């Protein structure tokens, strides 16, 4: 009976692990979906501005072109800084590897394993805290001006 329960548990855990893996097609589909949602939100915000501020069509067109220009500038800035970010990430990774090597020299194997486990647990806690903060930051739009 125990073997059966363990076998079912391992099969269940394996299926969850397989479900977590995403393919490049899934990522592309998700990216396209997110872009579509962002464009839709931009249009909704522009329509709301038009309604709230009583804008004419010329003003709407000018605001739209201004938003598009700003978006292009932000994308260019992101691309410009991409290599700096990558270099910084590689530098941090090298420092982390060096720290691990130094700690391995100082600690006994049992102490090193415990240190690694504690560090991984703390990292998971930080990830969860970040996810919770993200969830807390999402505004609850009730449709009233006070909620905005």
Keywords:
148 residues, 4 helices, disordered C terminus
Q: What do these coordinates show?
A:
The structure is a single chain. This protein is mainly α and 148 residues long. Helix content is 86%, strand content 0%. The protein has four helices and no strands. The chain has helices at residues 2-20, 24-53, 57-106, 109-137. The relative contact order is 0.03. Mean pLDDT is 84; it is low at 142-148.
Find the structural class using helix and strand composition: mainly alpha
Largest pleated sheet: none
Span between termini: 57 Å
What portion of the residues fall into strands of 2 or more residues? under 5%
Please give the share of residues in helix.
over 70%
Brief characterization of the structure:
This protein has helices at residues 2-20, 24-53, 57-106, 109-137. It is an all-alpha fold and 148 residues long. The radius of gyration is 25 Å and the shape is extended.
Helix and strand layout, with pairings?
Elements: H1 2-20, H2 24-53, H3 57-106, H4 109-137
């Amino acid at each position: 009976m125990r073997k059966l329960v363990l076998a079912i548990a391992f099969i269940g855990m394996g299926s969850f692990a397989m479900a977590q893996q995403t393919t490049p097609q899934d990522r592309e589909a998700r990216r396209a979906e997110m872009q579509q949602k962002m464009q839709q939100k931009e249009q909704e915000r522009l329509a709301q501005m038009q309604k709230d501020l009583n804008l004419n069509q010329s003003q709407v067109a000018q605001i739209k072109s201004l938003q598009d220009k700003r978006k292009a500038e932000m994308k260019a800035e992101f691309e410009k800084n991409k290599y700096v970010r990558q270099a910084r990430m590689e530098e941090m990774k090298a420092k982390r590897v060096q720290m691990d090597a130094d700690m391995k020299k100082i600690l006994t194997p049992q102490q090193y394993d415990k240190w690694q486990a504690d560090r991984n647990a703390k990292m998971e806690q930080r990830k969860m805290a970040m996810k919770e903060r993200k969830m807390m930051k999402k505004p609850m739009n009730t449709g009233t001006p006070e909620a905005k």
